[in-house]
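Put briefly, the fold is written as integer tokens. The lines below illustrate.
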Amino acid sequence: MEEEMFFNRTNIKELLDCDWSPELEEYIVTMRGEITKIDNHFGWYYISCNACSKKIEPANGVYNCHICNRECKFPLVKYKIHLKVKDKTGESSVVLFNVVAEKQLDTSAHKLLNRLSSDDNDVPTQIQSFCKKEFIFKIKLNNYNLQEGLENFTVSKVFVPVENLEIQFQSRKDKKGKSLLDDENEPKEQKTKRLIIKKAADVSFDNLEDSDEDQHVNDGVMSRKRRNIIIDNDEFSDEDTN
């Protein structure tokens, strides 16, 4: 979970400025932000078909699903909560769908809707309690975001920030940035001294133990490989690499 919280960590500005590539159909990032507002322009829930989960609208009191091409007798109430979020670099909007929102609120949209009066169009207090809280959002970017350049980023998971882990992550990030900056400013002749190049390191099959993969090598045939090994002092671990 700790690795997942920092996977491809980005900020809002970087998220909004990211470039689309035709090879990318989907991309996962994480972003830390404070919820500033519940955007209720589209409501906080929708009615879906119980078979295909697509949104359905009533017509004369009957819910018909155009995907399944039949009447939906048992429609479901599901969350779709639009949130405004901010960090030090900017503001944007994200969407919590049913699975993620239900886990955070610990109740279903159906139960929450039943608690409201028929003329109450306001956002329930349970959802309003999200405001002024900070979360780490795992965001799934798709063509809607990357190609069309539209926001309303889909949240696939929500984490509560762990401050000591955040400090450690920022410290590693700052050190890596300083190391890269030092490399840019370092004279060219000094950079070459930091590379250790071993050329023509011979590897003989005589010194290797026989394995199943080596059975096809005929006895008495000497094979040699030549390899170049380049060792650089600036190594980054997997957890530091975005």
